[in-house]
Design a protein that fits this description.
Shape: globular
Number of helices: 20
Low-confidence stretches: 80-105
Strand order of the largest sheet: 5-6-7-4-8
Structural class: alpha/beta
Helix content: 40-55%
Radius of gyration: 24 Å
Bound molecules: adenosine-5'-diphosphate, magnesium ion
């Protein structure tokens, strides 16, 4: 039976792939079979794409080998099953205690559980959870970047915390780049570089938040590069966050830049409406505040351009106001407390608004976007529209596809294409940032 075909294929892959790859990418795939075809389900779009790019040929040839004839293998996104724990968790050679000294207060509170996932951060989240289930095995480094208040610090610390929890005895060090710099400077001054080296080079996972701050500091970069190389060579995990992609960090030493780009680089963008709403809901729940539905809608629509930090600020403000005036948290109170801070500029945007903004910025007729014309400028404009509809409005790939008479893989491809260009082409980045502002 084909059910067995998948199981046999899995067994074969388990023994032929590097264990970390198998754990991170293959173990959580499920499959339904029909005749001689295998439909393999991945737990997320991101996971599916990765498997497609890196393992599909391997899965096909293995299945063919097992079945004794060619097998059609297709990939889709399905429910999947939880990622299995690693077969054997690597145990550090010496029982050095976990270093937590430089953890900032509150850092422990960051977890994957209280991180709300949406189109704005799903890639970063997926990368982070893959790293947490297979440190040193999935991507190295994981480089997360994005604007202020979008959840970078939360996510990288959540990764560190998950590793601590899952791999007891692992030495996990999470630190801000500023602290790294300060410690180095004071070690140099006190002639204690030995201790410094020992501290940073003996970890199993190193998380450096806001790594852009080391740019322009020659000695620090040199030290960091050295640490990076040693850790990487030893298969240790490195997780970095920054406000910009590596190639846009000014005065970043070339060696570091290429190291930073050598793993998975993912962007975090501003949350769309649905994600903002879910974040507010979650934060309210965590703080024991009951937020009525209409207040949730009001806040979500009003605080639009917002970073997550702004959403939190609004909630704090509301809570304070409610207790100050001794009133129930209702729409009236929300309007009084939040309204003046976020004056209404425009009505909330549906897909057409995206198109009108894109058409104007790229100087193409709005109607041409929905046509089937295919000159380079239009193709690009369409891709940007699709990207914004996904990332800013949170529309489903299939819904966007329908609008343009394309299937969802075309949309997915467009979103990835803009994502990639955004991270390596400053002009595209400026354009998209600008469009996001205007939405
Ligand atoms: P950054 O480091 O990108 O400036 P932070 O990680 O400090 O942003 O996030 C700002 C605040 O927003 C933090 O309190 C964080 O917990 C919260 N936050 C950000 N993204 C999310 C999310 N997706 N779900 C829940 N809370 C979030
Ligand atoms: Mg931060």
């Amino acid at each position: 039976m084909t059910e067995t075909l998948w199981e046999q294929t899995l067994a074969e892959l388990r023994s032929s792939l590097p264990v970390q790859d198998f754990i991170a990418w293959i173990a959580c795939l499920t499959s339904t079979a029909a005749g001689d075809a295998l439909t393999v389900q991945a737990p997320s779009v991101f996971h599916r794409n990765w498997v497609q790019q890196h393992f599909l040929d391997r899965i096909r040839s293995t299945a063919m080998h097992v079945a004794g004839h060619p097998v059609a293998v297709s990939l889709s996104v399905g429910p999947g099953i939880a990622v299995r724990a690693p077969v054997s968790s690597p145990s550090p050679a010496s029982p050095v205690p976990v270093i937590r000294k430089s953890a900032t207060p509150g850092q422990q509170a960051f977890s994957f559980e209280n991180f709300v996932v949406g189109p704005c951060n799903e890639d970063a989240h997926q990368g982070a959870t893959a790293v947490a289930s297979s440190p040193g095995g999935a991507y190295n480094p994981l480089f997360v970047y994005g604007g202020v208040g979008l959840g970078k610090t939360h996510l990288v610390h959540a990764t560190a915390n998950a590793i601590r929890k899952r791999f007891r005895g692992y030495r996990v060090l999470s630190i801000s780049a500023e602290l790294f710099i300060n410690e180095m400077v004071s070690s140099v001054r006190r002639q204690q570089m030995e201790t410094f080296h020992h501290r940073f080079r003996k970890v199993d996972t190193l998380v450096v938040d806001d790594v852009q701050f080391i740019a322009g500091k020659e000695r620090t970069q040199e030290e960091f590069l050295h640490t990076f190389n040693l850790l990487c060579a030893a298969g240790k995990q490195i997780v970095l966050s920054s406000d910009k992609p590596p190639r846009e960090i000014a005065n970043l030493e070339a060696g570091l830049r290429s190291r930073f780009e050598g793993g998975l680089t993912v962007e975090m963008t501003r949350p769309d409406r649905d994600t903002r709403r879910r974040i507010l809901e979650a934060k309210g729940r965590q703080q024991g505040i009951e937020i009525p539905e209409d207040v949730l809608d009001y806040l979500t629509d009003r605080i639009r351009a917002a970073s997550v930090r702004e959403l939190e600020g609004a909630l704090t403000r509301l809570k304070a106001k409610a207790s100050l005036v001794g009133r129930r948290l209702d729409l009236g109170l929300a309007e009084e407390a939040i309204g003046p801070l976020y004056p209404i500029t425009r009505e909330r945007v549906p897909a057409e608004r995206v198109e009108s903004v894109v058409a104007e910025a790229l100087d193409v007729p709005e109607t041409a976007l929905l046509s089937s014309q295919r000159n380079a400028r239009l193709v690009f404009a369409r891709q940007v529209s699709m990207y914004l509809m996904r990332k800013q409005i949170g529309l489903a790939f299939a819904t966007i596809g329908e609008r343009y008479g394309r299937d969802h893989t075309t949309v997915l491809h467009a979103v990835r294409a803009i994502e990639a260009r955004r991270s390596c082409d400053p002009e595209v980045r400026r354009l998209v940032n600008n469009l996001e502002e205007r939405l």
